[in-house]
Design a protein that fits this description.
It catalyses: L-threonyl-[protein] + ATP = O-phospho-L-threonyl-[protein] + ADP + H(+); L-seryl-[protein] + ATP = O-phospho-L-seryl-[protein] + ADP + H(+). There is one protein chain. The chain is an alpha+beta fold and 479 residues long. It has four domains: 9-87, Phosphorylase Kinase, domain 1; 92-268, Transferase(Phosphotransferase), domain 1 (Orthogonal Bundle); 273-345, Methane Monooxygenase Hydroxylase, Chain G, domain 1; 383-454, Up-down Bundle (Methane Monooxygenase Hydroxylase, Chain G, domain 1). The chain is 49% helix and 10% strand. It contains 16 helices and nine strands. The chain has a five-stranded antiparallel sheet, covered by helices on one side. Strands 6-9 form a two-stranded antiparallel sheet. Residues 15-19, 21, 23, 37, 39, 70, 86, 88-89, 93, 136-137, 139, 151-152, 154 line the site of adenosine-5'-triphosphate (ATP). Adenosine-5'-triphosphate binds at residues 15-19, 21, 23, 37, 39, 70, 86, 88-89, 93, 136-137, 139, 151-152, 154.
Length: 479
């Protein structure tokens, strides 16, 4: 298919098209050759309201500059088309990302929600309501690292917190029920859509997925309570957030301030550039206090810094930078542990500050990495053997808990999956599947052991009341 001509730009390919636009990948002729996305809209096919939407989008994108909002670089028009030149997002959109992965682990879901929440916080500070939040409008950048950006402000409008509007806007599957039922709504409609997006991330499809609009409208009209799929496990914080977002009655729904402060998001410690700067300031202060022999204050400063550093380590995708940061953070942990043991006897402050040290250790101790490719291969080979698939899935869940620092549950899950896998391995005849299974069992035993050791270090804490079931019955040797 031939591509149209756009003055000053070389078009590379068509990326996609929506209800009133086509989007192309392009670069500016004679310029830096930076790739951009150009949204082109045929003026002859546009209704009055579509033109209004475009004007809104242009006006908003021009002033809304934020790390998690797709940047508008330019806009212009000719006889037939209006063009918006935007930064190009090389990772597709969130909808395609979820489809490829089927569903997202909680830690990835948290990362995307944090970034979405940062964008929404910024939008709220400008009294802007997006009105059409859905995975297709959340674009992803792969480079330099996986980043989410809110795009498509075609339906957005200025709405102060409790100002009401009456027109129908948005996509039905993600649309807050009050828009459809009462035709009256305020900015909280965006929070409902966030809840639906979160549901789709965690469980692979939107809760009201239907084969026709009629069916969808029925489900919304019935105000059918949204149930989380059975046999799926999410942490209590995650469950609390999703159920608070998905309240049909907007006055029962979580408020923006509560959303931004929610413990699942832990936005305060999100891995942002600002938080990196904060962590560095805190750690410098810790070193200074340490030098001045103010051990207690130094310890607290190390812990505060580590709370910012851990999401930064987890989030870093460049292997070299990750390793450098990991080593640096490891030193701070060691020093914090030493300081803690010096004054542990007098230590009475039982706040969650003390959790930081083992939490960070866990994330860093996980050097032996979970090889997703061989895990997948093993899963595809395991279908013929009863119980193997289920056991592997439990192991994957354990991985997820481990990466989130939920060691107690991770250990329980490692224990259950090994209980099933070790006997299966004993019976497995030699061959490729046995090799893969052997490798997987070995890795999970190691991870189970280090999780166990890590839980042991929690006894360093003055409270020392951790109840843990250990992996003792799995100290078996592998043949
Ligand atoms: N800045 C961008 N970088 C990369 N891809 C983009 C960019 N903007 C849009 N796209 C892609 O182009 C496609 C069309 O986008 P567009 O905003 O026109 O429509 P839509 O959001 O899919 O549909 P609708 O406007 O009907 O809601 C989408 O699939 C999106 O993934």
């Amino acid at each position: 298919m031939s591509l149209p001509t756009i003055k000053d730009y070389s078009l590379l390919e068509k990326i996609g098209s929506g209800s009133y636009a086509t989007v192309y990948k392009a670069f500016k002729k004679g310029g830096s050759k930076d790739v951009v996305a150009i949204k082109s809209m045929d003026k002859s096919t546009l209704s009055k309201s579509a033109i209004e939407n475009i004007i809104t989008e242009i006006r908003l994108l021009k002033i809304l500059k934020h790390e998690h909002i797709v940047e508008m670089k330019d806009f212009f028009w000719d006889d037939r088309y209006i063009y918006i030149v935007m930064e190009y997002c090389d990772g597709g959109d969130l909808s395609k990302f979820i489809k490829r992965k089927h569903r997202l682990p909680e830690n990835i879901c948290r990362k995307f929600l944090q970034q979405l929440a940062l964008a929404l916080k910024f939008l709220r500070s400008h009294n802007v309501c997006h009105m059409d939040l859905k995975p297709q409008n959340l674009l992803l950048m792969n480079t330099p690292k996986l980043t989410l950006k809110v795009g498509d402000f075609g339906f957005a409008q200025y709405l102060a917190n409790y100002e009401h509007k009456f027109a129908m806007r948005g996509s039905p599957l993600y649309m807050a029920p009050e828009i459809l039922l009462d035709h009256k709504y305020d900015a909280r409609v965006d929070l409902w859509s966030v809840g639906i997006i979160m549901y789709e991330c965690l469980f692979g499809k939107a809760p009201y997925s239907s084969s026709s609009f009629q069916e969808l409208a029925e489900k919304i009209k019935d105000r059918r309570p949204i149930e989380l799929p059975k046999n799926s496990y999410i942490t209590p914080e995650c469950k609390d957030l999703i159920t608070s977002l998905l309240k049909h009655n907007p006055s029962e729904r979580i408020t923006f301030d509560e959303f931004f402060a929610h413990e699942f998001l832990d936005l305060v410690h999100a891995p942002t550039k600002d938080n990196y700067d904060k962590a560095v300031v805190l750690v410098h202060k810790a070193v200074q206090l340490d030098r001045e022999k103010n051990q207690k204050e130094a310890f607290h400063h190390y812990c505060d810094a580590l709370r910012y550093f851990i999401p930064l380590v987890t989030n870093e995708t460049d292997p070299q930078r990750k390793e450098a940061l990991r080593l640096r953070v490891n030193d701070y942990i060691k020093r914090a542990e030493e300081l803690k043991s010096v004054y542990a006897d007098d230590y009475v402050d039982n706040t969650d500050k003390t959790k930081t040290v083992p939490e960070v250790q866990g994330a860093l101790a996980k050097k032996e990495s979970f090889d997703r490719n061989s895990y997948r291969k093993l899963c595809s080979l395991s279908k013929s053997t009863a119980g193997m698939c289920d056991a592997l899935e439990i192991g994957e869940i354990a991985e997820q808990y481990l990466s989130e620092g939920n060691y107690e549950v991770a250990l329980e899950k490692f224990k259950s999956c090994l209980e099933m896998l070790v006997p299966l391995l004993a019976k497995e005849p030699p061959g490729h599947r046995r090799d893969l299974l052997h490798k997987q069992v070995q890795l999970w035993m190691k991870e189970g052991e280090s999780t166990k050791a890590l839980l042991g270090t929690k006894n360093l804490e003055p409270t020392g009341t951790q109840t843990t079931s250990y992996l003792t019955d799995h100290q078996c040797t592998l043949q």
